[in-house]
Amino acid sequence: MMTKFSKLRRLSALLLTLATLLGLLAACGSGDPAETTGSGNSAPVEHIDYVGSLTLDMSSPTAKQEVTVKTFIDGDTTHFNFPGGNFPNGVLKARYLAVNTPESTGKIEEWGKAAANFTKEALKSATSIIVESESAGWDADSTGDRYLVWVWYRTSDSAPYRNLNVELLQNGLAIASNSANNQYGDTCMNAITQAKAEKLKVYSGESDPDYFYGDATELTLKELRCNLTTYNNTKVAFEGVITKNAGESVYVEDYDPETGLYYGMYVYYGYNLSSAGLKILSVGNRVQIVGSVQYYEAGDSYQVSDISYNVRHPDDPNNIKLISEGNSGAYTETTAETFNSQVTLTVGEEQKTFPYAELALGTSVSMKGLTVKSVYTTTSETDSDGAMTLTCEDAAGNRISVRTVVLRDADGNKITESYFNGKTIDVKGIVDCFSGTYQVKLFSINDVAVS
Predict the structure, then answer these.
(1) Architecture of the structural domain at 217-324
(2) Strand 249-256 versus strand 261-268 pairing type
(3) Which of 344, 338, 366 is nearest to 430 (CA)?
């Protein structure tokens, strides 16, 4: 006779069997294993290293070349030193095939900084880097200035080469960009599918810890300087180093590796900041500025204003923010000839030409060997009484204006025209514009050496 305990045991075994069968049926009925990955009690799908499944075939007919890094740009663009005379100045400006990483050099996008850092760290650790074309030659992208390549790297002489393009896709740091239509198309698509299933980075739906989530547009100073009219009356956020405090305002600059230039901005803070906020804007600090772009009629120039720091809520995304201390202004050494020249840049997909000085507005520069040809002194019943404009020439006859604030010697005496007229000077200052004329502005007698 079956005891009550035996009946219960048999019933429990039957229920367990039914539950197992139902689980197996549910798993078999799922068309996409990614749908059950990491959900409920289902077993996670095994991660596959699709990058490791690729092999660099040096005997294939595609063009290949071992290179070294010249400049890191962002997640999907790197400038490489390329031996031989194939490219201007021996530099291949590489745009990675099959991937599109979020932006980190114009408008900043979520995961853009992470993608840029991933590429930089991968290639910095490399003992060898090989670029490969999709064809037997080197194919330019739509700008005509960059070339479409696969980037292979290895971290030791005994290690296999890894494909960085696919690695970006596999880690969820890039979205597809014609990814299926190439020699590694199947691997690219598998890497994308897995990254989506694993909900990595751009597919995660999570917040990027390096992204600005306030109500401003996050961008670089290059993007802002090259498109000022676009951002007029717009709230923006950008990073840069404080190079000069000029009384209720500061100058901020940042380096752009793609163009090799510094870009700057005049930031007016007025009387809005507490002592804690003013400390953040100390010279040498790298900061994040959040404020509104405004056209300043009296100065015929753009500035960023309406900045704030709420000491009770230091994590408020609208606050200015200290990033690091101990930085220095670039004081890029330049010449009057360069200062008066034109520069052509790729802005988006378009080629634009700017006066060099316009691009350099708000940045720190230095010049040597300028001869002072004439001096104009401001006379007025204002704080500018005694400020001077020096008309200077270099040895080749190129002219440039140097503007000073009211300068005083060590004893507090006002410095006048005779101190400069006919002399040769070396200067360190900030690029400024007055009545349509670009000039170098000096803020202290320590900014000029006279001989």
Answers:
(1) Beta Barrel (2.40)
(2) antiparallel
(3) 366
